[in-house]
Structure formats: C-alpha cells, structure tokens
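Reply to dn_fold:

You asked what the input looked like. This is it:
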Amino acid sequence: PLDAYDAAPEDGVYVYGLFCEAGQWDKSKEELGEPEPKVLFSTMPVMHFVPAAKAAPHTNWVDEPRDAEGAPEAVGYYVCPVYNTAARRGTLKTTGHSTNYVCPVVVPSSKPQSHWIKRGTALLMQLSD
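and this is what came back:
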C-alpha cells in the first residue's frame, strides 16, 4: 500500500485515516503486527475498498484450524471489525449490529485470528466522539 494515491481507483474508493487499536501495520511485512509498547492507537495505510453485492465467504467466522497440540493456526488474515469510535458501543439495530459497527475488513496477518480477537484489535474511524 502507498501512503497516498494521485488518481481515483477504477472501482471502489481509497480510504485513509483509519486507526488501529491493539495492533499496528507492519510496513516491512505488509501485515498486521504487534503494537509498539505503550502505543494504544496507530494509523493504518490507505486501503482500497471495493463494493460487493455480498460479503466474501472468508469474512464470516469459522472455527480456526488447529495443529496437533490443539493450538490455533494462522490462516493468513484477520477479519478486523471497523467501528466509528473507540467506545465500541451503540444502539442495537434490527440487523443485530451496533450503530457504532461499520463493516469487517480483511487484514493480512501471520498470526491466528484468535490472537487479535483476544487483544480486542479493531479499526477505528475516529479516536474520540
């Protein structure tokens, strides 16, 4: 990912200004990585959002594969939730989603999804109300 783009994409939109809570973008590995000590939020690179009539199957939760000892294995991505604010609360809509929840984003990762879920890793559109 680049830090900025001069032209609009052929399809979709470039989104910038997202923050990552409990994680950070590792530019060298081009994947989600551990945050720096004492850093709560970090900026994410520009992301290309492409419209789709239906969510990709891998954005739905499935049990993680396990190794011989029962430890979770990495699947190559983390389905990261995007929220409007860090509060992560809102009014529950009839769809079952909070008004604060925006959408899932598939972020490359070499760690199991449970690693990021236990940390509460999420993308935020703003840091305060």
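The chain has one helix and nine strands.
Hope that clears it up.
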